Amino acid sequence: MIKQLTILWVISIFAITNTVAQKFNHLALSPPMGWNSWNIFGCDINEEMIRGVADALVESGLKDAGYEYIVIDDCWHGERDSLGFIQANPDRFPSGIKALADYVHSKGLKFGIYSDAGNTTCAGRPGSRGHEYQDALTYAAWGIDYLKYDWCDTEGLSGIGAYTTMSQALRKAERPILFSLCDWGHNKPWEWAKEVGHMWRTTGDIYLCWDCAHDHGGWFSWGILKILDMHHNLNIREHSGPGHWNDPDMLQVGNGLSVNEDRAHFAIWAMLAAPLIAGNDLRKMTKETLEILTNAEVIAINQDKLGIQAFRYNKQGDLETWIKPLSNGEWAICFLNRGDAPQKVDFDFKGLIIEDNVADLSVDFDKATFNIRNVWTKKNMGTTKKAISTTVPARDVLQIVLKPVSKK
Ligand code: GLA
Predict the structure, then answer these.
(1) Strand runs (DSSP E) across 73-226, as ranges?
(2) Domain ranges for the chain
(3) What is the DSSP letter of 23?
(4) Other CB atoms closer than 10 Å to residue 364's CB: what's the count?
(5) To test ligand 1's pocket by mutation, which of 36, 122, 199, 222 has the most ligand atoms within 8 angstroms of CB?
(6) How far is the CA of 252 from the centre of ligand 1 (A)?
(7) Which of 40, 61, 73, 217 is the most buried (most CB within 10 A)?
């Protein structure tokens, strides 16, 4: 009897700890889509502006296109109160975070917030170290749906330990909160965070340039191509998939790159099955920015239910070919011209077999024919019976989807 009771006790303890350790599993089944304040506003945020952005997200059509989360990044914080509860900055968020979350929810959107595993955030605001359970309860009470959790001021902390602690705290708080890890890849989260969170940054911060490295004095942030190359060189595409995404950082679309660069940036992020977190001022977008961010055929590539990150099939000088297998036997191909001169693309399907060992999918173009759809011009380009021969402008893409020709 005693023995049986002991076994039961061990099982129930295991079950309890095991439940606690699980993240919320039904979230982020496709790459999360939304908006975050950091890339354009940095610390200069306030509740009126965030409400305006939420309004714009709905009115512009971004919500209908799939963007769902409004996330306030660093600097919303005030002090902790005498009991250790975190407060919003009273000057910038006088109505409090709960009221803002309610407003965002009233628009049919979800609301996200930012904290840090260390004592202080990257901008020196209070971090969650030592307050993880208290903060998770606060976020749940405020109605938070998404937590981005940064890695500044974490000396002496283990990445697995600190992120697991917050994941368990969120679970304990019993509100399904999407957990976005932001350790810049330092702790190799792709190796262990699948059970802990829903997405993880793979690189340092994105910077508003095509291919530069920006020195902040001791640390760097990186242009679009630099991020792409770092992300690719990690060779971690098999770790990304429904519920757990490799995250090459938020979008810079609409923040000052050229239209060609913005299009290429968005096209490639879609291919990578990256979270699509817009980072521009949605209250004043150009027509071109809006068209890029809401391109339904490109978003469909990103959101495809297989959730497979593209692989780089080929690189010839400035021209790269990226391939992403899609559901229903479709394939997305993106020809990226990294350079400053137009590039000729000659792509013949004859005798071509494409294999993706990660997805365990392959296609033999001598055995199957596909219609070719250009997802930017929204025009059909014939079938794979004929080679593609065209030119890609400087710093731009040709992005196509191959759709099987139905057999008669
Ligand atoms: C880090 C993150 C950024 C942003 C800032 C805020 O640099 O990587 O995405 O959250 O902190 O201070």
Answers:
(1) 77-80, 86-88, 110-116, 146-150, 178-181, 199-201, 213-215, 220-222
(2) 2-19+28-303, 311-407
(3) P
(4) 12
(5) 122
(6) 14
(7) 73
Catalytic member of 73, 116, 145, 205? 205
Please indicate whether residue 346 is annotated as part of the active site: no
For the record, the structure tokens of 35 come out as 């908006």
Full-model pTM: 0.95
Using the mean position of ligand 1's atoms as its centre, give its distance from the Cα of residue 199 in Å: 15
Nearest CA to ligand 1 atom 5: 122
Atom number, ligand 1, closest to the C-alpha of residue 184 = 8
Pairing of strands 353-356, 343-347: unpaired
Q: Would you give the end-to-end CA distance of the chain in angstroms?
A: 69
What are the tokens at 362?
């392959």
How far, in Å, from the CA of 73 to the mean position of ligand 1?
A: 8
Residue given tokens 């971090």 in the structure block: 127
Same fold, 2-19+28-303 and 311-407: no
Per-residue pLDDT of the chain (408 residues; tens, 9 = 90+): 455 555 445 444 444 444 455 899 999 999 999 999 999 999 999 999 999 999 999 999 999 999 999 999 999 999 999 999 999 999 999 999 999 999 999 999 999 999 999 999 999 999 999 999 999 999 999 999 999 999 999 999 999 999 999 999 999 999 999 999 999 999 999 999 999 999 999 999 999 999 999 999 989 999 999 999 999 999 999 999 999 999 999 999 999 999 999 999 999 999 999 999 999 999 999 999 999 999 999 999 999 999 999 999 999 999 999 999 999 999 999 999 999 999 999 999 999 999 999 999 999 999 999 999 999 999 999 999 999 999 999 999 999 999 999 865
CATH domain 311-407 topology: Immunoglobulin-like (2.60.40)
CATH fold group of domain 2-19+28-303? TIM Barrel (3.20.20)
Q: Which atom of ligand 1 is nearest to the CA of 204?
A: 8
